[in-house]
Amino acid sequence: MQQTGWVSGAESLTYQRCGTCRHVWYFAREFCPGCGSRDAAMREAGGRGVVFAVTKVTRAPTKEWKAHVPYTIVLVDAAEGFRLMAHGDGDLQIGDRVRLTWSRPLGQPIPYFTRP
Amino acid sequence: MSWLLGVGQTRFGKLEGQETLDLMSSAAEQALQDAHLERSDIDGLICGYSTVLPHLMLSTLFAEHFGLSPQYAHSVQLGGATGFAMLMLAHALVEAGVAKRILVVAGETRATGQSSDSAIQTLAQVGHKDYEVPLGATVPAYYALAASRYMHDFGIPEAELAEIAVLMRRNAVLHPDAHFRDPISIDHVMASLPIATPLKLLDCCPISDGGVAFVVGWEKPADVALRIRSAAQAHTHQHISAAPDLIASGAGISSATALRDAGIDLGDVEYAAIYDSFTITLAMLLEEIGFCERGMAGRYVRDGYFDPNGSIPLNTHGGLLSFGHCGVAGALAHLVETARQMGGRAGTRQIAKLPKLALLHGDGGILSSHVSLVLERTS
Q1: CB distance A60–B138 less than 8 Å?
Q2: Is A3 in Cβ contact with B136 (below 8 Å)?
Q3: B74 part of a folded domain
């Protein structure tokens, strides 16, 4: 499947919603993982959500990422009903209401959340 | 019915000058010796994978190297759950009559065969290649995310997780083959290098070299008879971003199924061999399986409940956290120790009451793949 959203290099956060069973999901595919329907419309997320989990990473995997430690990785529950992994402000806490911006630590845009 | 006929294991740690096939061969030789079998007695072979020796056909590569001509060979890949999945597969194949005596072998030079950056990058690939890995995520970071939420929900302080690391080290101190044998305290764990909050270096298992092998067969052994009583799996997701629930990750399903199929209750279990890639992993698995209430694992550990001579002896070799983690063979060291404890062959580590029933549980990915087994000593 052709990549969409920030994965394709755009400042865009996309998700899908099944026209048959209403299931909502994040990782792009051509069918609904809930019911198998191919009515799997791609939508643009509004960028609002709540922090589900948060970690500040000090041990980075690569030379490129080591230049950016510590960086904060979050799981955010988007208002539309899907969960995504992203970066965020270092002081984010579980339960914080957050808003999407973009960051480019390695050049390509990645989703970044801050408190409004 | 299937029986564990013999086990073998190399030392874990940094084993300079060895390669994957060396460690696999050494463990396999020991397992055959322990089972009083020759190479020609083996008609089935199951291997896992080696991150430093990626190969399309590791089982037949090993068969040729070691000098086996099995009628059945197979490699298995299920991350950290691979070892116990191989045990389950060997059990199922023997029960189905596909093979009579299956050698299961794992091993790799995960520590000395590559840089730690390389190991960390390879392991991080269990995350999503488009949506997670490009964020600079690592396996510790994935588990740290789970830890942050779990500790938040159940009010677990970091010092309680540290109890788990201290217990695993205390057990490893008694094992001559363990990767780490210097005693540690809660203060050591709390002061260890930050990796991904709330996880610190001593909350994480090391990257080790090592090999483990065992034989599963159809004849009941004459001396100590260890029977694989039941086995079950559950797979609810691959990626932490897509996990339907951190509280019901699948460990509860697979362990309940294994206990039910064995016709026993958790209260009948006298030894626990539980996957412990991180302190949080062991806490979450113990709690989901039901050994203690949610949020209480650290306190149970502190109170001695999981001590070698406590109510439920747990990973008495030191677990992945201190005995070491060399990939597929990592969790199989849990099996070797279980067999030795059940057979009264654990030397200075021998627990006072020989366990009759043990529960083994493996976890692969980010609490993604679960395998549970019940092992029984019948004589």
Answers
A1: yes
A2: no
A3: yes
- Partner-chain contact A75 B145, CB within 8 Å: yes
Would you say residue B245 lies in a domain? no
Q: What percent of chain B has pLDDT over 90?
A: 94
Determine the straight-line distance between the first and last CA of chain A, rounded to whole angstroms: 34
Res B26: pLDDT: 98
Tokens linked to B95: 């029960």
Q: Establish whether this prediction's ipTM goes over 0.90.
A: yes
Please name the residue of chain A whose CA is at the shortest distance from the CA of residue B147.
A53
Beta bridge partners of B216: B4, B102
Number of domain units in chain B: 1
CATH number of the CATH domain containing B75: 3.40.47.10
DSSP B10: -
B-interface mutation test, from A25, A85, A93, most B Cβ less than 10 A away: A85
Domain encompassing residue B39: 2-113+208-217
| Contact: A73, B149; criterion CB under 8 Å | no
Q: Do A85 and B195 touch (CB under 8 A)?
A: no
Q: What is the CA radius of gyration of chain B?
A: 19
- Partners of residue A90 in chain B, C-beta under 8 Å: none
Q: What is the DSSP letter of B204?
A: B
CB contact under 8 A, B121 and A62: yes
Residue B201 pLDDT > 90: yes
Tens-place pLDDT, residues A59-109: 999 999 999 999 999 999 999 999 999 999 999 999 999 999 999 999 999
Q: Is B112 exposed, middle or buried (0-12, 13-18, 19+ CB in 10 A)?
A: middle
Does B142 have pLDDT greater than 90?
Answer: yes
Read off the pLDDT of residues B76-93 as tens digits, 9 standing for 90 and up.
Answer: 999 999 999 999 999 999
Chain A closest-CA separation from residue B13 CA (Å):
21
Measured in whole angstroms, how far is the alpha carbon of residue B309 from the centre of its chain?
Answer: 21
Please state the pTM of the whole predicted model.
Answer: 0.97
- Band the pLDDT of A2: cuts 50, 70, 90: confident
In the structure, what pLDDT confidence band is assigned to residue B245 with cuts at 50, 70 and 90? confident
Beta-bridged to residue B54, according to DSSP, are: none
- Looking at the domain assignment, is residue B123 inside a domain? no
Q: Please give the interface size between A and B, counted as residue pairs whose CB atoms are below 8 Å apart.
A: 102
- Secondary structure (DSSP) of B19-47: -HHHHHHHHHHHHHHHTT--GGG--EEEE
Using CB atoms, pick whichever of B136, B145, B197 lies closest to residue A65.
B136
Q: Is B103 within the bounds of a domain?
A: yes
